Amino acid sequence: MFEKYNKVQRAVLETTLNIIIRKELQATSMALIAKESGVSTGNIYHYFQSKEDIVNELYKAIVTFNGEYVREGLLQGRTIREKFELGWNRVVELGEKYPQGFQFIEQYSFSPYIYDEVKQAVYTDGWCGPMDKLYEEAIQQKLFIPMNPKLMVQMHYGTLVYILKAHLQGIFELTSDSVHEVIRSCWKAVQLADDTVQLNGTIG
Amino acid sequence: MFEKYNKVQRAVLETTLNIIIRKELQATSMALIAKESGVSTGNIYHYFQSKEDIVNELYKAIVTFNGEYVREGLLQGRTIREKFELGWNRVVELGEKYPQGFQFIEQYSFSPYIYDEVKQAVYTDGWCGPMDKLYEEAIQQKLFIPMNPKLMVQMHYGTLVYILKAHLQGIFELTSDSVHEVIRSCWKAVQLADDTVQLNGTIG
DNA sequence: CACCATAAATCGAACGTTCATTCTAATTTA
DNA sequence: TAAATTAGAATGAACGTTCGATTTATGGTG
């Protein structure tokens, strides 16, 4: 997750993420980060400008990592339908494999603590852009209903975020089957009606 | 929103909500709450046990308010389909009319700062319980596919939360038409296939 | 209605603690 | 031996909370 950073920076970023999720930004003091990461406060300030800087760097790193991971999935699909399924599957995988990163982005994407320029990274380094494009194509090819593609992507992302949230809170289990079913129902939600009829039979 | 509280409590809760959304919990000091609410710190502690207490009371009040508002919508519908549309419409209305309350719940529903007992309020005083029941009925009546109703409710709530979030961040506009279209597509996502066929014609 | 005694509400200065950050000295590395 | 790295005590500001004083409301008595 933090490959491009050195040992000290990585320890600091990992520890910070850990504490923020466990205890809340408010309770994440530099003294605690120093203690748990094994890096002295003085040394932390040698690699980071401030506490704000650490948290924003953390945000940027996670968004970039997530972006690469999902885009890789999108690339692997050949048809639009395949890209759709592989892409969203990767989003769910991220939530399951890296729950702290997922929770962190969810909790702080709205926070004033994260600089606006850093939030923009979602579109430049994340997966939103490529996903928007995929939806535009799907509309052009009459697979999806004519709707604002950005709105559709948000809808589907929200769907997955919330089943992940509920899953992480232990409200229900998530099997690969149920995830698949959810993703299929996302497709169904926005597919052009003609599609369904072609699948089920001919009009009277 | 804070009808059951007295003047001072209301001023404190409203101010706190305001500052938290504007500046972040971390930057919400008692001194600032006192200054902006016009209530001295000493007097705040006459009505609240601690800062934590204020924030948790705020959370509880908003969840209860939202719960009442959505349940009222659910009651007004006669058919399942009507309840579905009116209920979710109210959720969107809440996000539009009371964006601060909406954002606050979104941002802190995962936070360790909110006591677990207070989080439970979503099910006891909120609208999740009644909505779950509606979905169970819809499954029994073969309107919806056989899927975990809790999972379905989370899916649809996530859908609406994310179009609201994007809307509040100014990514796109939300008309009552587009909201209606989104809610209809939520229904479509989980409706039993037979339904569609009956609408479109007979199977060849 | 005036008076006073008691209680409730309100205030803001003061307290002790904790915080982010700095600084200087020590240590390691090249 | 010079530069880069690391350490942790020191600093001053800011924090949540407390407390004694002051104001306002209440209700019984002459």
Automatic annotation (TrEMBL), chains A, B:
Residues 29-48 bind DNA. Keywords: DNA-binding. Pfam families: TetR_C_10, TetR_N. Residues 6-66 form the HTH tetR-type domain. GO terms for molecular function: DNA binding. InterPro entries: BscR_C, Homeodomain-like_sf, HTH-type_Tx_Regulator, HTH_TetR. This is TetR/AcrR family transcriptional regulator.
